[in-house]
Amino acid sequence: MLHTADGRRVIDAISSWWVTTHGHCHPRIMAAIRDQSERLDQLIFAGWTHQPAEDLAAELVRIMPRPLDHVFFSDSGSTSVEVALKMALGMFAHRNESRHRIAVLEHSYHGDTIGGMSVGARGVFNRPYAPLLFDVETIPFPAQAAEQLALDALERFCARGAAAAFIVEPLLLGAGGMLIYPAWALAEMRAICAAHGVLFIADEVMTAWGRTGTLLACEQAGVVPDILCLSKGLTGGSLPLAVTIATPEIYAAHYSSDRARQFFHSSSYTANPLACAAANANLAIWRDEPVAERIASLAARQSKGLSRLAEYPRITNPRQLGTVIAMDVAANDDGYLSEIGPTLKAAFAARNVLLRPLGNTVYVMPPYCIDDVDLRRVHDVIEEVCHEALPK
Ligand SMILES: *Cc1c(COP(=O)(O)O)cnc(C)c1O
C-alpha cells in the first residue's frame, strides 16, 4: 500500500515495477538494512570482501541448481545481463574459440543499457540508439502451435557457426507484453543449445523469486542454464542489487595466472553491504516464512479473478503464470489502440490502484502479501474501468 501526500491509499498492484515481492518495508528486511548500516556501508569489492556478501553468495549457491556455483555481483538487472554477455564471449575468447554470435527471443526485454537493448526487441524505446546496438539473431517467439518454428530457427542459429550464446526470459516475457510460452519449449531450446555447445543464458531478473510459482521459472522446465541473471526480487525489492551466476566451466576459462584473462567488470557498488544484508534477509524470509504457500494462495486467487474478468467481451487473451495474470483490452476502434494504455492507467489511478498497462495489455503482479480484499478491489477496478472508462 502506498500512502500519498493528499491522503489516498493506493494499492501497488505491480509490485513497484515487479520488484517488491514480500510487500513494501518488510520489517525483517528493514531491520537488516538498519543493522548493517551501523557496521559497514560500502567497501571496495576487489581484493576485499565482507560477511554479508560471503553469506549471500554461499546461500545462493546452496539454493540454486548445480552446477551454478560462481556468483558475480552487480547492481541492476541490466548490468547482470551485461555481465552474462561478457562472461559468455569471454569464455570463448580465452579458449581461442571464434564464437561471438548471440541469439535472442522475439519480443524479449533484457534492460536498457546498450548491451541490454542490443539483445532486446528493437522498437520505439531504442530506435534513436539503433546505430549503437550490435547485431543479434532473433528467434521467433514460441507462440502456441508455432513452437517448432522457434526451435528450428534456434537449431539453424546454433549450427551455423560462431554461435556463442542464447539469452532468454524463461516462460514469461515481461516488458514484451506478458507473453507466456510452454515449459517443454524452454526445455527443447535448452537442449538444442547444449547439443551445440552454445551457452544458455536465463534472464530471470523478473521471473525468479516465486513470480511464476516456483523459485526459478527454469525449474518448471527442468532446465539449468549456464548463466543465470537475478535482480529485482533478490533484495525483496528493497535495494538495488544483482547477481550473475555461472558454471565452473565459465569460471575456469577466466581463471589464470595471466592477469589479462581475469573477468574485467568492476562497478563501484559491486556487492554493496547494505544491499547484500537486505538480500540475506530476503533469503531468510524464504527459509523461515511460508512464502511458497503465499505464492500458491495468490496464484489461486488471481486465477479466480482472471476467470471472472475473462467473461467480459472486451477482455481477450486471458493468461496466467504463477502470481501473474495478464489480459488484452480490445478497443472498438483500432485507432484507440495507441491511446488505450494511458487512458487505462489514468482510470486505474483515479480509483487508487497502481496498474501500468503495456500498450493494451493489463497485468496484475502484486506483492505476495496482498490480502483478499485488496486483490478483489484490483480485479473489480479492472472490470469497472473496462465498463465505464473506455471509449465505446
Ligand atoms: C527489469 C528487467 C531487466 C532490467 O533490470 P533493471 O534492474 O531495470 O536494469 C532485465 N531483464 C528483465 C527480464 C527484466 O524484467
Short characterization:
This protein is 39% helix and 16% strand.
Number of helices: 12
The string of secondary-structure elements, in order, is EEHHHEHEHEHEEEHEEEHHHEEHEEH
Binned strand content:
15-25%
Number of strands: 15
Tally of discrete structural domains:
2
Radius of gyration: 21 Å
Q: Helix proportion of residues, in percent?
A: 25-40%
What is the third-level CATH name, the topology of the largest domain?
Aspartate Aminotransferase, domain 2
The largest pleated sheet is described as: 7 strands, mixed
Small-molecule components bound: pyridoxal-5'-phosphate
The CATH superfamily name of the largest domain is Type I PLP-dependent aspartate aminotransferase-like (Major domain)
Mean pLDDT: 95
Report on the architecture of this protein.
- Helices cover 39% and strands 16% of the residues.
- A hairpin with a 5-residue loop joins strand 1 and strand 2.
- The model has no long low-confidence stretch (mean pLDDT 95).
- The protein is built from twelve helices and 15 strands.
- Helix 4 (77-94) crosses helix 8 (248-254), helix 6 packs parallel to helix 7 and helix 10 packs parallel to helix 12.
- By secondary structure, it is of the alpha/beta class.
- The chain has two domains: 27-288, Aspartate Aminotransferase, domain 2 (3-Layer(aba) Sandwich), CATH 3.40.640; 290-388, Alpha-Beta Complex (Aspartate Aminotransferase, domain 1), CATH 3.90.1150.
- The strands form four sheets. It has a seven-stranded mixed beta sheet, with helices on both faces. Strands 1-2-14 form a three-stranded mixed beta sheet.
- It binds pyridoxal-5'-phosphate.
- Pyridoxal-5'-phosphate binds next to helix 4.
